[in-house]
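Hi R.,

Here's the input for the calcium ion complex you asked about:
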Amino acid sequence: MESAIKTLVTTFLSSTKGKDSLDNKSFKKLVQKQLGGMMKDTNNSAAINEMQEGLDANSDGKVSFQEYLTLIGYLANSLSQHECESNGTAS
Ligand SMILES: [Ca+2]
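And here is the predicted structure with calcium ion in place:
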């Protein structure tokens, strides 16, 4: 659990390359590189742009750490629902 949280943070930090948020290009790269197994449409630039707009709560064209966490929360949520559906006896 702790290492998973560290991974979330370090993945974001290494993707922003010293800035405080992800621009279009680095967001796309992160999604394609890190989330290709979990998400559909990671080869579809339009779909990624759309997703970025959906996450961009303050409409500055970039994905901040908070907005990135929204994506992680969304993925975790859909994963947990999927796990419940496919394996009702889990834990
Ligand atoms: Ca933003």
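One thing worth noting: The pocket of calcium ion is lined by residues 56, 58, 60, 62-64, 67 (CB under 6 Å).

Cheers,
M.
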